[in-house]
Design goal:
Order of helices and strands: EHEEHEHEEHEHEEEHEHEHEHEHEHE
Strand order of the largest sheet: 1-8-2-3-7-4-6-5-9-10-11
Oligomer: single chain
Largest sheet: 11 strands, mixed
Bound molecules: threonylcarbamoyladenylate, magnesium ion
Radius of gyration: 20 Å
Number of helices: 11
Shape: globular
Distance between the termini: 48 Å
């Protein structure tokens, strides 16, 4: 159903309008510290259904419920394990999502029928103000069409969802730029379902060793559908090279030169240091900032992907960042964006 999507400022009027729309069962996209979310009242089954429809998201992929404060947890879950209390006290508000036993007030559709619900308290002041003004838990996936790159600005949201949602609150660029870390606390040991803006090392420092969910470790089952191989993807083919810096740069050079020689338009999505040594190739590029500042790279990753995509290169080339700290989440998103086009050197 097409509608006019309002672009709302983040002043008192914009926030009051957004909260009124949400309470009326409408969908409002809003900034969080990670990425923009597509919000609807979590207790309202019609709003929840509208979220899935607007995104084109399969009903099998559960949503995250956002709260203003950890003290509201009892409204949405049945039990709060000790590990959840510790993690909430340490990392909320912030980019950590906890999977806990779902409370009866949360419609099953939020969780794709699972007995669990994913919950997070966002730190972004606009998300905080919106949650407080609405006074209700807000279900919000990333505000992109299903499978596409997550949005880190109001313009990205409009590019994907204009005409499909009531409004978007324009809070400027998302400060972190990568989605929250998703941790399942319903099993015997905490399990990482999705690496994200809070590093595994930081979480383990608080609660001890964590099981890392990989495709191999869960086989055909799909505990977190965000684990789908192709996700967070631009609509251009992306090749990802993994390996030591010198070997990766050599591969990027050879591959770029071959593409250019074949008349193909290449888009490089790389840190400054890589671009500096490849600048003679004449390839289009988006800089991710210095390789020594992974948080800056995270902040720019999705905007860089979308900017390159808009210029329609024939192929995008990128490099892996390893598995330490934030690099784990960066590499995870790039692997999914590559959709199988991964080269180990
Ligand atoms: O940073 C974020 O997490 C952003 C902002 C808006 O909060 N939200 C976000 O939502 O990335 P979404 O829907 O794009 O990703 C939610 C992830 C998916 O991988 C989903 O499968 C997983 O969380 N998830 C949600 N509920 C779950 C549940 N009950 N059990 C297991 N995984 C769940
Ligand atoms: Mg998403």
């Amino acid at each position: 159903m097409l509608q006019t999507t309002a672009l709302l400022p983040i002043d008192a009027t914009g926030l009051a309008t957004a909260a009124a729309l949400l309470r009326d069962g409408q969908l409002v996209a809003f900034p969080t510290e990670t990425v923009y979310g597509l919000g609807g009242v979590a207790f309202d089954p019609l709003a929840v259904a509208a979220i899935f429809a607007a995104k084109g998201r399969p009903a099998s992929d559960p949503l995250i419920v956002h709260l203003a404060d950890a003290s509201e947890l009892a409204r949405v879950v049945t039990t709060i394990p000790a590990a959840a209390q510790r993690l909430a006290a340490r990392f909320w508000p912030g980019p950590l999502t906890l999977v806990l036993p779902r409370g009866t007030a949360i419609p099953p559709a939020v969780s794709a029928g699972r007995a669990t619900v994913a919950v997070r308290v966002p730190a972004h002041p606009v998300a905080q103000a919106l949650l407080r003004a609405t006074g209700l838990p807000i279900a919000a996936p990333s505000a992109n069409r299903f499978g596409h790159t997550s949005p880190t600005s109001a313009a990205h949201v409009l590019a994907d969802l204009d005409g499909r949602i009531a409004a978007v609150l324009d809070g400027g660029p998302s400060p972190l730029g990568l989605e929250s870390t998703v941790l399942d606390l319903t099993g015997a040991t905490p399990t990482l379902l999705r690496p994200g803006a809070l590093s595994l090392e930081q979480v383990e420092a608080e609660v001890g060793p964590i099981t890392v969910m990989t495709r191999a470790s869960h086989g055909a089952a799909m505990p977190a559908p965000g684990m789908l191989d192709r996700h967070y993807a631009p609509d251009r083919p992306l090749w990802l090279v993994r390996g030591p810096t010198d070997a990766a740069r050599a591969w990027l050079r050879t591959r770029s030169a071959a593409e250019v020689a074949a008349g193909q338009r290449v888009g490089l999505l790389l840190p400054d240091e890589d671009l500096a040594v490849l600048s003679d190739l004449g390839a289009d590029h988006e800089s991710l900032g210095s390789a020594s500042d992974l948080s800056a790279i995270a902040q720019r990753l999705y905007a860089g992907l979308r900017a390159l995509e808009a210029r329609q290169p024939d192929v995008i080339l990128a490099r892996d960042f390893g598995e330490t700290g934030l690099a784990r989440a960066l590499s995870d998103r790039l692997r999914r964006a590559a959709a199988g086009g991964i080269v180990d050197v």
